[in-house]
Structures are given as structure tokens and as C-alpha cells.
Amino acid sequence: MEQEVFISHSSRNKQKADEVCSALEKSGIHCWIAPRDIPVGSEYPKEIVGAVEKCKIFLVIFTKAANTSEDVRRELGLAIAAKKKIISFRIENIENDLMDSNFKYYLRDLQWLDADLDDKEYRNLVEVVSQILSSIPNQKKEDNNGLHNHDSKTDSNKFEEIHKRYSEYKEKLILDAEAGNNESRYILGNDYLIGNIAFEQDYSEAYKWLKLAADEDYLPAIHLMGWFYYRAYFDDKQDFEKALYWFKKAADKNHQHSCMQVGFMYRFGLGCEQDFEEAIKYYTKADYYDASSALGTLYEDFLKDFKKAEYHYKKASSASSYACYRLGMLYWYGVGNEKPNYIESRRWLGEAAEKGSTAAKHQLGALYYYGNGFPQDYVEARYWYEQAADKGNVDAQYTLAWLHLHGLGTPKDATIALALFKKAADQGHTLSQGHAGDIYFRQKDYKSAFDMHKKAADQGLNNSRKRLGDMYALGLGCKVNHGKSVEYYQLAAEQGDVISGKSLELQSMPLLEV
To answer: How would residue 359 be classed by pLDDT, with cut points 50, 70 and 90?
Structure first.
């Protein structure tokens, strides 16, 4: 199927992007959106470049998160170089002085469309996209058999054309920067920092242009100078003191993301003495949902002021799945000296899950698994664990495997259980490694059992240490090695395993002469 619309979005706005994609596709407009349309095992950047080239409309979902997203910035640069029709669909309003200069530069003469957030069908967007598509001529060329012609020279010509446009863009940008244009200096520095078709990554050049703009008080460049030292772009050496200097300089000019970063650095004592009062001051100055979430965690984890934590989480909750999740956990354990409130916990964990929080989905599984405030319900628990496990949550994969192994809320199935234990084991989950080893052992696949128990034993799982003692003693999945057998029995016995202690005694007894 021909792709008509490429949807560019920050991963933090995935739920909103999926809603937009669904609305367009319900109207018969085929979309390309990551990560849905990226084949498993393929090269992510290559797929992005190809999809931008093939689309008719490039739709950027513009939000505060997109404003700071390097991926969105790169995709937009590709779309401009390919001369695509671009629509900026504004979900969140961002003050002009806070908009990243790259977006100001790229989007200044392009079409903007503000979202009507009360319209879940996004009818205004569907109408605009449909009108634009109807005005774009069909560029497919067909031969006499109705098959699409494909010429490798065409692809080569396209690449040369894109490279030429980027080269022209680079020349103009350098001329403007050399003439003293600080916005161009910032964009040039950023391009050298990230690297693209026209700019080979060069930290020295990036630093040169950013410093020129920053020294003339160009706010976005001042902020990026902070990241230059924080992320060790220069000389591969982090310098938190210099990073804090630049972030504070930008924060004192009300750059919100710098305020957020200064708050973070005071909170953890990076480049300064740890100072919670200063952290609160700068987080408060940032005044957006990420800062409110950060204030919530500071009050909860460091200052133990749970009421203030609750207040800040709620302030951020409309836009932040993380804040909703933390609220859910706050009620789970009880706010301050209060008893756990599982009804409120369920409400906020549900909000977080709707916003895409994998951790919240796992916790909802636990709520029904243990029957906290609700009747124990393994079927409902399994549903939520499946949601989290599909997103790679290792604890959910482990517990879901346990449900399948023991037939809780689902028929017993050791095969499904093993597959899930193995998924979690491959991510380093110790208990899953041990359980996978036990299942392999029962299936007499001793080599796989040995490999799994070895991983778990090396991470300190006592049952696997005992099992390795047995396997080395009997030569199951490995060569007989009494020294190794004694070693693992000893480790298990030291942690209180009585059977391993008895096995050690047996191994130390002298053989009877016949």
C-alpha cells in the first residue's frame, strides 16, 4: 500500500501520535509511523530516510517534547531537503522565545495547524490532509503491463539531488554565520554536533560556532553549551562545573529546559554542593510538567514530604504518565502516615497505563495478582501483565511465565512459560534464568539447563548454585568436575542450603576399598 503521510513525533507523544494516525487511516489515508512500520531487524535510520522519501505529506506533531527532540529535527531536515509538503500540527502551544531555533528556521514559512483537542477524530486535520492529497498528482508511472518501472539510476539521481540541496543549505548557513547571524551560528553548531548528509560530525566546529553565538547571549546556544560540557562532547571529559555555569546563565534568562537542568544538578550535587532549596527554586522556575514531576520525586524520595509530592504529581498528571504512575504508587503505599488507598492507586495507575506507562501496566497486574483492595483476579492480572510484557517489562514477563507455568488465570503451559522466562532471562533477570534452567532440566535438555543455571548462579541465585553442584558432579550438560561441584555446593551451603551441605559431606567421604 502506498504511504501518503509520514508522521514525525517525539516518542514521549506516542499515544497522541497513534491517535492521529488512527484518525487519518480511518478516513482511508495511509500513514507511515515509527516504530510500527519499521520491520524487525532492519536499520532504523535507513527506514526513516526511505519513508520520508516515499511520502507525499510530512506531518510533524509539534509539542514541547518534539521541540527538544533531535530525531524530529533530523526527520524535518530530510523532509525539507526532499521538498515534501509539510504540515506542522500543533498539539501544545510553545512561546516563540522557547521554540528551538532549528524549528523556527525550518517551519517559519510552512503551514501550521492547531489541534482541536476536544475533537478526538481530528476532523480539521483529516480535511486539510485530504485536500492536499487531492491536489498532488499521482507520480506513479506504469508500463504496458501495469507494473511500476524502477530504475536504479532514478535512486542515484534522487540521492544526488538531496545531497546537492544539503550542500546549498550548508553554504548559505555558513555565509550567514560568518556574517554574524547568531541563529545561523546556532543551527550550524547544532548540525556539526549531530551530523547529517551535509555535515560530518565535528565537535570542534560545533563548539566554535556555538561559543560565538553564546558569547553574544544567544539563548539557545547558551543552553547547548551546557550540554556540550555535561555530555562530554569536548575532549570526552565531563565538566559539570562548566556545564552548570552555562545552564545557569540560560536559566537566569528564563530558558525553561536550562532551569530544569540546573534544578537536576543541584538536586544530585553535580558541579556543586547538593542543595535542595536551589533545586526547588529552579524546578519551580521551569514551570512545566516535567519540572512538576521532578519536584514530586524530590519531595517524595529526598525530603519525605508526601503531601507536597502528591500536589506536584497531580499538577503534572494531565500531561505526564510518569506523574500518574508515581501518584498511583504513592497511594499504594499510603500518603505520609495514611493507610494505603488502593482505589485511588487503581485510578492513577489506570491513567498512567492509558498514557502508555509500562510500569503502571505491570503494577496493575500486581494489584489483581495479590488482590490489593480488589478481589484477587488472575485473569485480570494476566491481562495487565501481558500488556507490560509485550513492551519488554522483565518483571511482567517473569510473573506472566509463572501464571502459565502454574495455570493461574490461564491453562497450564510450560512451553509458553519457558518462552517468557527466556525473554526475561535474556535481559538478565536472575529468577527467570533459574526457572528456565529448571524447565530445561525437566525436559532433559541439560546443556540449556546448565547454561541458564550458570548465569543465575553467577548472579547469586542459591538454587542454581546447588543445581550446578549436582550437574558438575554427574556430568549433566558439562564434563564431570568434582572441584567445580564442591565450589558451587560450598557457595550454596554458605547461604544456608542444607542439602548442599549434605552433598559436600558425601563428596568429602573417602571411597571404600573393595
So the answer is: very high
CA separation for the pair 91, 109 (Å, rounded) = 19
- Phi/psi region, residue 195 (left: phi>0; alpha: psi -120 to 50; beta: rest), is left
Which of the listed residues 136, 158, 174 is the one where a domain comes to its end? 136
Can you give the pTM of this predicted structure?
Answer: 0.70
Query: If pLDDT is split at 50, 70 and 90, which confidence band does 109 have?
Result: low
8 SS3 class: strand
> Do 371 and 377 contact (CB within 8 A), yes or no?
yes
pLDDT value, residue 111: 60
- The CA distance from 116 to 343, in Å, is 32
Give residue-wise pLDDT tens across range 71-107. 888 888 888 878 888 998 988 877 665 666 667 666 7
For residues 262, 266, 269 and 271, what is the CA-based torsion angle, rounded to 10 degrees? 40
Sign of CA dihedral 8, 13, 19, 22: positive
The answer to whether residue 333 is domain-embedded is yes
Tally of domains in the chain: 2
Q: Kindly report the CATH number assigned to the domain that includes residue 262.
A: 1.25.40.10
Domain of 342? 240-483
Q: Quick one: what percent of the chain has pLDDT higher than 70? A: 86
**Residues 128, 269 within the same domain:** no
Q: What is the CB neighbour count within 10 angstroms for residue 2?
A: 9
